[in-house]
Write a structure and sequence with these properties.
A 7-stranded mixed beta sheet has the order 9-8-10-11-13-12-17, sandwiched between helices. The chain has a 5-stranded parallel beta sheet with strand order 2-3-4-6-5. A 5-stranded mixed beta sheet has the order 14-16-15-18-19, with helices on both faces. It is built from 25 helices and 19 strands. With 624 residues, it is of the alpha/beta class.
């Protein structure tokens, strides 16, 4: 497809060279390109379709990279990447050796900060803006924050510390509130008035003059300011922002690129931090995404000519199996509650919500609150299940320690997207939870197929007490692991051969690779057994005794090695007196790619050929 206006954008700053009347046409081109490109590669769609005009206006008004843009969350940065010369990279978006789906400073000096988690941009922006002040550097710092990210507590911690940073602009991208006609017209008029540089100069001169009036000057200024706040409370309901030190502007039509450009250009002179409230439509430009923006938030490649509603026909996955089973258990267990942090569909809790809405809670992008809220429920006899992606559970580490584990409260942690995760790269890998749950002392289970997931979920809910966790991979079960079924044992030897001196051990989705590695070893004349754990912490009773019969033990896990289950097993084995060869292969978190899971395993040496080679090489070392 030919993109007449987008073709004019080859590098940072090119958007400034377009005639003003071409900006809306450029936005149409960008929106069409994003739909066509993301449908072919997969990626975050709805959020990017909603911020096209805003991003174009920012690039038109700002001078990058001197000025800085920070995205919250970073998945809304696709238009920004197009405007900074990375269009060719979209052919391999979120693929190995392609561009990231999030801001990536290694890709461009216009990407200020990595941003894969939410509610962080304002704190980062305040730091960047303050650094500019300290160093005497010119330039604006703009934080773009979605209304979803505003449910996270860090935003308010940041707002409480904006001080008098007159180089800071916070843009609230509100895609849920509509602008009513009357309020909208008044807001547009006052916005034009209050963003005109003449307004700022007049305001500053007036306040200076009033303050010079003997005895009453300062008090008179305060009275006028309070009267202004009362008027604006009625019009904008915005005094919270102003009382925290912001100049509030809005609400503004977030799809009027010319008006946004005018406002942002006029803000070249500002005397305080600015809070710009824009209203957008998530998924704008693709009818299905507009109607179901959540379902088109992050998509795999799809056929534009045969779109279906993903909510109505969800793909079978660990998440949907977990959610379906939890909803069934909720009908039998009257104190069972389900909690998530802005991921109702992603975690499969939509089934629980539809069946038992009074015991379902979506707390927004606030993982810390989710865990402590669960602690409060548990302290009163309820049984909360907190379902959050592994990478986002990291945000609630203190709450798990202090609010749940110290009192041994009856909370179940359901850890979605555990292990290696495709496409999203370094910001979303589920590789830390085995370490932090075990370090706290929380029993943790890692099923490798649907049968084990459903069985152990019921065991955790009906037969166990205290904090405990169950973790499972993104996507579907693998046929080789599905064929193993569920024995109900905390660990199983899933392959045994006569006279084997080597055993391969793993858990979860990585169990498939040790089975394949054993086949490869057999082809080279090396007999190897395979042991799959379901209970990964504490190590199951009897495991060390059985493993100590082998001369060589290889442990592979889709988690960081430091503090992981493999290290704990190695220590436990040596404490029993075992002195064989222990081979440990985990994730090196210093180079995490955005790639497919098979590519990630290959890169990390966690695929079957690499595991088999590790065993072969260890045998060579022992040969005299």
């Amino acid at each position: 497809m030919k993109y007449v206006y987008l073709d004019k954008i080859q590098a940072t700053g090119d958007v400034k060279n377009l005639p003003q009347q071409e900006l809306p046409l450029l936005c149409e081109d960008i929106r069409s390109f994003l739909i066509e490109s993301v449908s072919a590669t997969g990626g975050h769609l709805s959020s990017n379709l909603g911020v096209v005009e805003l991003t174009v206006a920012l690039h038109r008004a700002l001078n990058l990279p001197q000025d800085k843009i920070l995205f919250d969350v970073g998945h809304q940065c696709y238009t920004h990447k197009l405007l900074t010369g990375r269009r060719a990279g979209f052919a391999q978006l979120r693929q190995r050796d392609g561009i990231s789906g999030f801001p990536a400073p290694q890709e461009s000096e216009c990407d200020t900060f990595i941003a894969g988690h939410g509610s962080t941009a304002l704190s980062t922006a305040i730091g960047v803006a303050r650094a500019k002040k300290i160093k005497g550097e010119p330039g604006k710092v703009v934080a773009i924050i979605g209304d979803g990210a505003f449910t996270g507590g860090m935003v308010y911690e940041g707002m409480n510390n904006v001080s008098t940073l007159n180089n800071l602009i916070v843009v609230l991208n509100d895609n849920k509130m509509s602008i009513s006609k009357n309020v909208g017209q008044m807001a547009n008029y006052l916005t034009k008035l209050r963003t005109d540089p003449k307004y700022f100069h007049a305001k500053a001169r007036m306040e200076t003059a009033l303050e010079k009036i003997p005895a009453v000057g300062s008090d008179l200024v305060k009275v006028l300011q309070e009267g202004k706040k009362l008027i604006r409370r009625g019009i904008y309901h915005s005094t919270m922002f102003e009382e925290m030190g912001f100049q509030y502007i809005g609400p503004v039509d977030g799809h009027d690129v010319l008006e946004l450009t005018r406002i942002l250009t006029n803000l070249s002179e500002q005397y305080s931090p600015v809070f710009l409230h824009i209203v957008t439509r998530k998924g704008k430009g693709l009818k299905q995404a507009e109607e179901n923006p959540g379902e088109f938030h992050s998509v795999s490649a799809f056929d534009l000519d045969h779109l279906t509603n993903p909510e109505m026909s969800p793909k079978d996955s660990f998440s949907t199996r977990f959610g379906t089973r939890l909803a069934e258990l909720g009908a039998d267990v009257p104190n069972l509650c389900a909690i998530t942090a802005a991921m109702k569909y992603g975690t499969g809790l939509n089934f629980f919500y539809h069946n038992i809405p009074e015991r379902f809670f979506d707390v927004g992008m606030a993982e810390e609150h989710a865990v402590t809220f669960a602690a409060g429920l548990a302290s009163q006899g309820m049984l909360p299940v907190v379902a959050i992606y592994s990478t986002f559970f990291q945000r609630a580490y203190d709450q798990m320690i202090h609010d749940v584990n110290l009192m041994k409260l009856n909370v179940v942690f359901a850890v979605d997207r555990a292990g290696l995760v495709p496409a999203d790269g370094e910001t979303h890998q589920g590789i830390y939870d085995p370490g932090y749950f075990s370090q706290i002392g929380i029993p943790t289970f890692s099923p490798s197929n649907y049968a084990e997931l459903e069985y152990w979920l019921e065991q955790l809910i009906k037969t166990m007490q205290g904090p405990r966790a169950i973790r499972y991979a993104r996507g579907e079960e693998k046929p080789a692991l599905a064929a193993l079924g569920c024995t109900g044992n905390p660990y199983d030897f899933i392959r045994r051969t006569a006279d084997a001196c080597t055993v391969l051990v793993s858990y979860g989705a990585e169990s498939e690779e040790i089975l394949r590695a054993a086949d490869l070893l057999e082809q080279q004349g090396v007999a190897a057994d395979c042991c799959k754990l379901v209970q990964i912490f504490p190590l199951p009773e009897g495991l060390c005794e059985e493993l100590s019969r082998y001369q060589t033990i290889l442990f592979a896990e889709e988690a960081v090695t430091s503090g992981g289950i493999g290290q704990q097993l190695c220590t436990a084995l040596h404490q029993t007196g075992w002195r064989g060869t222990f081979l440990l292969r985990g994730v090196d978190n210093t180079h995490l790619l955005h790639a497919t899971v098979p590519q990630l395993r290959e890169d990390q040496g966690l695929d079957a050929p690499a595991l088999a080679e590790l065993v072969i090489e260890s045998r060579k070392v022992r040969v005299p």
